[in-house]
Amino acid sequence: MNDQVSTLMADVKAKNPSEPEFHQAVQEVVESLSPVLDQHPEYRKGKILERIIEPERVIMFRVPWQDDQGELHVNRGFRIQMNSAIGPYKGGLRFHPSVNLGILKFLAFEQVFKNALTTLPMGGGKGGADFDPKGKSDSEVMRFCQAFMAELYRHIGPYRDVPAGDIGVGGREIGFLFGMDKKLRNEFTGVLTGKALEWGGSLIRPQATGYGAVYFAAEMLKTRHEGLEGMSCLVSGSGNVAQYTVEKLNNMGARPLTLSDSGGYIYDEAGIKEEKLSFIMDLKNVRRGRIAEYANKFKSATYTPFDPKLDYNPLWDHKAQCAFPSATQNEINAKDAANLLRNGVYVVSEGANMPTTIEGVNQFLDAKILYGPGKAANAGGVATSGLEMAQNSMRLSWTRDEVDSRLLLIMQAIHKVCFQTAEKYGTPGNYVNGANIAGFLKVANAMMDQGLV
Ligand code: NDP
């Protein structure tokens, strides 16, 4: 760390105590930016960095709701409106017991750069609650969503802030949230993305993050004149992103071998083919069961429960060429990164947000593998949300092929700008620097143009 980065990080830590994930996300970005700030003293003078790490607004609120037994509960809701320099705030809602201010600030911060890379006019935001949808009935989830929206609706809108899904917020939750917003506002507006097709959603939005992460991996491989055909792939998670990563890997002739949930992981040496993926989709999206069931159903698979005493994740300790972390932040630590490299993995495309610790990232960069950080590799989701917003504004729907081909073009454009920017700033092949610098430049220039606001 150079002196300027150390001073800035000391300030960030003092001002935002107990928010390690936010510190981590900021450190990774500011470490990339030194050459840009050296070339552009106007950004230093305009205090762009100091302004970009301070949310424009943080909303924190009480969410009281009643369970099926009549018992009352109080959760904490959040919306971080991080940066609106290039468009309305845009970013998902996460419902998970681990949610806190620091985690949402890291996600909102990452979102600013990611959204800038998509080529679409979207600012950055993120929100959610420390509510755990697991084990709750549909009525309980509905009542929670309604209570959450009873406050959030006054802070969002198609020209202000457009939330979407994230961990624990899928089609069911978006439906309940949208219904409550519509009732309170007495207006049918594109206030959320990830909606169902019949009421304003976009084809390919559910698939977009996973498909996009695979398209990004394919683009990285193209730089070495290679493709995904026949590649063995480790995938973590078994939710929205993981499912459509597996689907696209199969479409492209690759061999996805693993999936996980918070309880453990399955390794299927025969590959998680289409019919097995249908089982997963039913298990996770309809029956809301545990991944362990997969190994009871398919004999080619083994299930390993996670052992909290282990200091590494055994999912990352299998021979493969590619890894698609698609569960949550910091799921690849230094030891996992070393295991991946030792097992022959040389393509990592992050479907999840910040799934790799800084020590893990440094190992990937030192090994000069094809490493696509989340803010570039998983930007297909928010990009397609941007396409959903465009369709809502025009009051029409594009076909599946039209949205998918736009998604592919956007992922190719993101890859290109990251690749070229990394080269321009003297670190060829370093997609971390490429993504951070390219995203920053777009937002910084908009902030300079708009004055001190
Ligand atoms: P889902 O809720 O659909 O799935 C999350 C999956 O990850 C589940 O299998 C879940 O297991 C597992 N998981 C979650 N938290 C943990 C944890 N602390 N430890 C172990 N496993 C965990 O979420 P998504 O698929 O939508 O999101 C996955 C990742 O992708 C997140 O990092 C998200 O921020 C990122 N992302 C999502 C986008 C989207 O469009 N949905 C867009 C861009 C990024 P279990 O069910 O047991 O909790």
- β-sheet strand percentage: 5-15%
Determine the CATH topology of the largest domain.
Rossmann fold
Outline type: globular
When the domains are counted, the total is 2
The major beta sheet can be summarized as: 5 strands, mixed
The overall pLDDT, averaged over residues, is 97
Topology of this protein?
Elements: H1 3-15, H2 20-39, H3 41-45, H4 48-52, E1 57-66, E2 72-83, E3 89-95, H5 101-117, E4 124-129, H6 138-152, E5 161-164, H7 171-185, H8 205-222, E6 232-235, H9 240-251, E7 255-256, E8 258-260, E9 264-268, H10 274-286, H11 292-297, E10 301-305, E11 322-324, H12 334-342, E12 347-349, H13 358-366, E13 370-372, H14 374-377, H15 379-394, H16 400-424, H17 431-450
Parallel strand pairs: 3-4, 3-5, 6-7, 6-11, 11-12, 12-13
Antiparallel strand pairs: 1-2, 2-4, 8-9, 9-10
Helix pairs in contact: 1-2, 2-5, 2-17, 5-17, 6-7, 8-9, 8-15, 8-16, 9-10, 12-13, 15-16, 16-17
